[in-house]
Design a protein that fits this description.
287 residues; 11 helices; six-stranded mixed sheet; Nucleotidyltransferase, domain 5; globular; two-stranded antiparallel sheet; alpha/beta; 45% helix
């Protein structure tokens, strides 16, 4: 049986992700303000004034729509009245400055604290998901097991299913090789502990690489005779992949850079978390 995970209690809301989309916009705006204050978001001079007020909120909403609805940049530009080049430039610049990763880390810590946990986890779960990709994508390979030509996204999540590290590579890269950059990201943020994965992460080479980073990869059986077994907390990563499958931009990959694909994965989780935090019950907020 799987280990029970008790999240913080939240009020009920509509299943529609548009219901609380303003929470996503508000969180991005607050993080942009914080980055401008600490100097990690330098101001830039140009021939046109920077977007502010309602126009900036509309631009953030447009980036969210690209991720959730799978819309093209030119299409969302026509609908919002903002040049698509402006929207794409904003997204690319914020990705380069690390806005999405920084905001996601903050929201993850807030959610863990609301659940009565420590800010940093002691155990993570690792896995990968293979997605079909367009020929113009930054990388492409064939996953022999799933018979999919595309990209493999590897992530490490904590017990609530929130990602601590994300990486992407061609689908023909084996899991034991594709997870190493994820483990390096975990070690870079100071994590040292067990990483639970399925039996695809067995092997002496991976074990040595992880041990050098202070991480112990622990493969567990998660299925038998075609039946999924919720071993310990290993099941939470499957739930995380099901969450982001609602975001159409992540179902067929068209991004021309790995950084932009990772950014859209982070945006999806930011959207999920900001919605949850807005619906926290009063007693959870007070704690």
């Amino acid at each position: 049986m799987g280990t029970a995970v008790r999240p913080a209690s939240t009020t009920s809301a509509s299943w529609d992700a548009f219901w609380d989309v303003d929470a996503f916009v508000d969180e991005v705006l607050s993080e942009l303000t914080a980055m401008a204050t600490d100097g990690s978001r330098p101001t830039r001079s140009g021939p046109k004034p920077a977007l502010t007020g309602a126009a900036l909120r509309k631009a953030i909403m447009a980036i969210w729509c690209v991720c959730f609805c799978g819309m093209r940049w030119r299409t969302i530009g026509q609908l919002t009245g903002i040049p698509f080049g402006t929207l794409y430039t904003l997204f690319a610049r914020w990705t380069r400055l690390g806005l999405w990763r920084r905001l996601l880390d903050r929201l993850c810590r807030m959610w863990r604290m609301a659940c009565g946990d420590t800010a940093e986890p002691s155990t993570v779960v690792i896995d990968s998901r293979t997605c079909p990709s367009a020929p113009s994508c930054f990388a492409r390979g064939v996953d022999g097991g799933k018979k999919i030509r595309g990209v493999k996204v590897s992530i490490a999540v904590e017990k609530y299913g929130l990602p601590l590290a994300i990486d992407a590579m061609p689908a023909n890269v084996h899991d034991t090789n594709g997870i190493v950059p994820v483990l390096r990201q975990l070690a870079g943020r100071g994590f040292q502990g067990p990483a639970i994965g399925d039996l695809g992460y067995r092997g002496e080479r991976l074990a040595k690489a992880a041990k050098a980073l202070g991480i112990t990869v622990r493969p567990v059986v998660r299925g038998r005779d075609g039946v999924f077994i919720p071993t310990e907390i290993a099941w939470v990563v499957e739930r995380s992949f099901s969450w982001i499958s609602r975001y159409r931009r992540l179902n067929t990959i068209v991004e021309r850079t790995k950084e932009h694909l990772v950014a859209f994965v982070e945006i999806a989780f930011i959207s999920i978390l900001s919605r949850r935090l807005k619906r926290l019950t009063p007693q959870e907020v007070s704690t």
